[in-house]
């Protein structure tokens, strides 16, 4: 932030007192007080892990500050200077970051869900009259050269942001507003841009290899096909028509289950494009389905019963399995980047009195997946890519990670509905 505004420098004792009072406030503890620290100089300071949720921090300088996993949720960070700050894993959901400067900062794996990074009006001291007269000018958010690798930007407002050369690799950017953004030479490889608005964005030299581009709005902006190899576009018309049949198959599977195999039919979604059925499976009983090599990107299996299901080699990037029962499921070789398994049941499925079947993620690509509060007891994660994966509060007794001792993979639970149900109920 190039201005001549005079920043306030707090001594360590005063700052610690203010932070402690604010953390009491943020945690709902009696005697707390919300921090109001406008134009304070935090340059080079270490506030890693501190709770500054809802704090008023307008115009503060955090240049070169260490802010790893710092909580800035809903904080007012208007016109703040975060140049070269270390914000890895910071929680900044719904923060007001209009006019902020993130140039050269590291926000890898940070949560910027629904944050506002649009153009903001910045107060600048008049050069002739010093601080006596304050003028205002509009300044867009500056993220040139910023690292957002693996960050979550879902629903954020990045309209008009200047982000030349920024790295958005593997980011979740579903519904992000990027109208008029300067994204020249940016790395968006592997990013999930479902329903993002890129109208009028400058995309020269931007990389979109292996990105998810379903439902994006481009207007007159163009993505160079040579820079988008392996990118996933919208479902085909035939896939949309096929979705009606697949929904009937799912309903038939429930009938098959409830009738113990005397009616309906066991569902097989092998190789199918399930994306047009985004929320169809929510809460359904789909125990022991086969969905090998299916395309389930972004599909919601919220609270679905999927004991013993076979998702081997499926593309399930950004899929939601929150609250689902996945005991004994097979995810070997699956793509699960940014998948949501919060509160899911992933413990073993009991097959008999002396035999169980573990949930298997051997060889799965699951960067930045979320297993918070999940039950992953005895689950197998051999040879899985777990970079940035979150296991906060997970029950993990007996979970297996590292190099696989064998090359053997798991299979789906089999048998009649009664047999599989007995496996599930016995666990």
What does this 3D model show about the protein?
The protein is mostly loops. It has a domain at 235-427. Helices cover 11% and strands 7% of the residues. It is built from three helices and six strands, in the order H-E-E-H-E-E-E-E-H. The chain has helices spanning 12-26, 237-258, 417-426; strands at 120-126, 130-139, 349-352, 355-357, 380-382, 400-402. The strands form three sheets. It has a two-stranded antiparallel sheet. A two-stranded antiparallel sheet has the order 3-4. Strand 3 (349-352) and strand 4 (355-357) form a beta hairpin. The longest helix is centred in the middle third of the chain and has 22 residues, at 237-258. The radius of gyration is 24 Å and the shape is globular. Residues 129-138 and 407-427 have low confidence and may be disordered.
Write the layout of secondary structure elements.
Layout (H helix, E strand, L loop, with lengths): L11 H15 L93 E7 L3 E10 L97 H22 L90 E4 L2 E3 L22 E3 L17 E3 L14 H10 L1
Parallel strand pairs: 5-6
Antiparallel strand pairs: 1-2, 3-4
